[in-house]
Amino acid sequence: MEQKDYLLREIEKIGRIMMAIRQKLFGGNESLAITLEKVTADLKEMLLNDANLDLEKLLGMDAGETDAYLDTLQGFSVENIELLAETLSGTGLKYKSTVFLEKALQLFEICSRRDRTYSFKRETNISLVKDALQDNA
Description:
Blueprint: H1 2-27, H2 36-51, H3 55-59, H4 63-72, H5 78-95, H6 98-115, H7 120-136
C-alpha cells in the first residue's frame, strides 16, 4: 500500500511540474521577444531539475527508445507524457521547430498506444502537429 501511495504522489508531482512548466512557457506576456534557444534552455533546466528528464537525450531518441526511457522515469503516466507532448508541440508550433514537433508527435503516439482509449483532444493535437510538420517541410 505504501508503494502505491508513493507512486501516486510521484505521478501527481510530475503532473504539477509539467503544468508549472507550461504556465511559465505559455502563460505570461512578460517577454515577447523570447527565442527558441532561451525557451529550450529553460525547458531543459526545468525538466532536468524538477522531473529528472534529460531533454537533450529525449530529443535524440527514436520512438522505441523514447518509450523505454519514459518507462524508467517515475511519475510519467500517460497524462503526464501527454502534458509533455503538449508542451513540446506548443513550443514547436510557436517557434516553428521541427525537432520539437516530431518529438511531440512521437509522445502523442506513445500515449495512444499506452492508453488504448480514444481521446478527441489527443487526436486533435496529433492532427495539428502533423499539419504543422507538413507546412514546415
